[in-house]
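Request: How about a record?
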Amino acid sequence: MSSSKVWSVSELTGCVKDLIEDGFFPLWLSGEVGNLTIHRSGHVYFNLKDKNSQISAVYFSGSREFLRHNIKEGSEIEIFGRLTVYENRGNYQINVNKVRLTGVGGLMAQFEELKQKLAAEGLFDHDKKKKVPPYPKSIALITSTDGAAIRDFLNVIDRRFSNIHIKILPCTVQGDGAAQKLAKAIKYCNDQNLAEVIVITRGGGSLEDLWQFNLEVLARAISGSHIPTISAIGHEVDFTICDFVADLRVPTPSAAAEIVIAEKDEIKEKILNLDRRLNSALKYKLAQLRQRLERLENSYVLREPMRPFQEKSMRIDDLHRRMTIQLERSIENKAHKFNNLKTKLDLLNPQRVLERGYSIVTINDKVVTAEKNVPMNAELKVRLADGEIKVTRNK
């Protein structure tokens, strides 16, 4: 490229933009917030500086995140984003995607390490979660008496079911040693069998504010509780180790109150509905029984109790008559067959042949069938129809 080329400002700025944006990957950057402006559009403009340098930064739609972490001028923060060049001014800046207070990165690493450890031990398993009773008679509330969480919880309970028994266990919910005190409160509830449900709650805050709810001693106390435990820590976007270990996690203290006890009017309505359904079912059953009774009353069994016996008797008579007829017919058939056989037998009887003028001639009780078989002077027996005669052959 010739050194004599005359560049425009836009050309030079564009070239610098390409070099910076292509030459750097997204990165984390730490420093102090200065010249902070939270625009009504929701965008956040500020400088991130240290004792020697500063860089412009913009966090599009980041106002909620800054307010949630209570970030203001002078706050030490860490931001994650990509370097860019704002061509209209010729300034390089960082477009922010994430923000956290300085030191949060280390806390998050501890959070993930403990989370993975407890998950591997099965403390988060769904099948180990105890069922929260729908209508507990008593509730143990573990929280600070100075915070808004207890007021929110009690206001909802008073509106939904004013005479429910709430046992409050005041406890520190922030700062060193809070986790141990909370764990002792849970153990006390279990040792004394103090309530049917435990609610552990506090309002929102930064990761540091909620850090005591991410400690192992409290997680194991919740896991070891035989009383179902509800975790209502921080706001909807906040998650702690307690939330994963508890039998039920809700986003806010008010939501915990709404879930742990049904509204009295709602319960009344359910009872009325059950009462109506029970009455309808009873009426239907009575109507069925009444119809059945009417059918029985009108049945011939009750009107003519002897009718079944009479019908059976008639059936027996009918069977007897049919059997008699069949027996007589069978006897007649047998007699007819007998007479036929007798006639045939009579026809074959030799006596009948003799009566027609024939005779039977025998020698020594042997029938003579041919003249040549009769020797001279042989004595013959001639059997006739009415007797026998003896003759001698002379010729």
In short: Residues 268-315 form one domain. The longest strand covers residues 27-38.
